[in-house]
Amino acid sequence: MSSQLPTVFVVSGSTGASGELLVRTVLAQFHRTTPVLVVPHVRTLADLECVVGQAASAGGAIIHTLVDTQLRHQLTELAQAQHVPAIDLMGPLLDHLTVVLGERPAEKPGLYRQQREKYFERIAAIEFSVAHDDGQRIDELPQAEIVLVGVSRTGKTPLSMYLSVLGWKVANVPLFAELPPPPVLLDIDFHRVVGLTIEPGQLIAYRKWRQSRLGVGSATPYTDPSHIYEEVEEVQRFCRKQGFAIVDVTDKPIESSADEVITLVTQRLKT
């Protein structure tokens, strides 16, 4: 028996990763192996003629995951004409699901890969937002797609996390009336920066609740009404001076605030 076994040609309209994985999974059940050649991005009759010709010359077989019905039929006909074994991994399941689901498949190669890419992009956005919460890694601020700024307890962190789940890389930076802002904040594209503001009375209530949770009972500037009013006004003045958009989060659900932030940033980046 020859040591060189016939090649298995994995034909796909996309990258061929799924077909290759299945073929290698099956080959793992055998002591001997055979060469596997992935032929990706097969989209035309000319592509099919080429790969079937190669398989015929090599005495190989074709395993394919084509989702396009016409291409599958053409491949079957070409392979039969040249006596090339061809195994359709996609067609029978597509036909079955067409009946079960009551609709035609999109027949667009690469859709699953695109969905996976979007998933990993969303995970990357979440990881970025966690790493850049509350002024952390401030030197990387230019990498953020959205930067939220505001005084303490305006909801910067939960809003950042919500936006990141939607796929946005968000950083948030706390602002203090008595301290200058980080210099890098003044160097980035101001169209990406959104200042969060809130009605002082609501902010006082939030801060008092936080103090009670931390076991701090005495009065401090953190909950002093006059200090809070000044703090909120100072941050608003700063945002207006820098050209930052401002979103009032008073009594707003996080979904509404997120929609407003996204709309403002996307519109401002177009100008």
In short:
The protein has 271 residues and is α/β, with parallel strands linked by helices.
- Radius of gyration, in angstroms, nearest whole number: 29 Å
* Distance, first to last CA: 71 Å
Strand fraction equals: 5-15%
Mean pLDDT, as a whole number? 93
General form: elongated
pLDDT below 50 for ≥5 consecutive residues: which ranges? none
Portion in helices = 40-55%
Please give the count of helices.
Answer: 10
Please write the CATH class name of the largest domain: Alpha Beta
Explained architecture:
The protein is an alpha/beta fold. The protein folds into 2 domains: 8-109, Rossmann fold (3-Layer(aba) Sandwich); 114-270, 3-Layer(aba) Sandwich (Rossmann fold), CATH 3.40.50. 50% of the residues lie in helices and 13% in strands. The chain is built from 10 helices and 8 strands. It has helices at 17-27, 45-58, 69-81, 91-101, 111-131, 156-165, 183-187, 200-214, 225-242, 254-270, and strands at 8-11, 36-39, 61-64, 86-88, 146-150, 170-174, 193-197, 245-248. It has a 4-stranded parallel beta sheet, with helices on both faces. Helix 6 crosses helix 10 (254-270). It is elongated, with a radius of gyration of 29 Å. The N and C termini lie far apart (71 Å). 27% of the residues are buried. The model has no long low-confidence stretch (mean pLDDT 93).
